[in-house]
Specification:
There is one protein chain. α4 crosses α5 (131-138). With 154 residues, the protein is of the alpha/beta class. The protein contains 5 helices and 8 strands; from the N terminus they run βαβαβαβαβββαβ. The chain has helices at 25-32, 41-44, 61-65, 80-96, 131-138, and strands at 4-7, 36-39, 54-57, 70-73, 101-104, 115-117, 125-127, 142-145. The strands form 3 sheets. It has a 4-stranded parallel β-sheet with strand order 2-1-5-8, sandwiched between helices. Strands 3-4 form a two-stranded antiparallel ribbon. Strands 6-7 form a two-stranded antiparallel sheet.
């Protein structure tokens, strides 16, 4: 089986911005069996639990990596540095563990692999990647979501 990292919230770890989780039983089982490593980029970057909702404005994760977009809280505080730091820590974990696949939480400003929220805090989704997903893709890892990960486990 491929080496895998997963968004920790998908593995029943209460690290989501509101202090809850998005458990997917099969992903939790992979972590429990030592087949996947749980990571939360926002916590690794220094974010507390709970924390204010964050969204990317003026682009997506690739834009954040290039300095053309930023991550802000619902109250306008710039959290771009926290998101970049967390993404780099996840990449370090992936490299140290020879990870080839990342299963990440869709729509997250860190982990979204295909869709993120548009920065208006109105639940409107747009195509794009979160900061961690973009960095991992840029470094050649396969990145997918909890919605389509089974297609990548073969």
């Amino acid at each position: 089986m491929r080496r895998i990292i997963v968004s920790a919230c998908l593995a029943d770890i209460k690290c989501k911005y509101d202090g809850t989780y998005n458990t997917v039983p099969e992903i939790k089982k992979m972590v429990d069996e030592g087949l996947a490593i749980p990571v939360c980029p926002e916590v690794l970057g220094g974010g507390p639990i709970p924390r204010e909702p964050n969204e990317i404005i003026e682009g997506d994760g690739f834009g954040v990596l290039n300095g053309n977009a930023k991550v802000v809280t619902i109250n306008g505080a710039d959290k771009t540095d926290l998101f970049l730091a967390g993404a780099k820590k996840v990449l370090d974990i992936a490299k140290k563990n020879d990870v080839q696949l990342a299963i990440l939480k869709e729509r997250s400003p860190s982990c979204g692999s295909s869709f993120i929220y548009d920065g208006s805090f109105s639940s409107k989704k747009i195509p794009g990647q979160g900061v961690t997903a973009a960095l991992l893709k840029k470094e050649g890892l396969t990145v997918c979501s909890e919605e389509n990960y089974k297609n990548f486990l073969k």
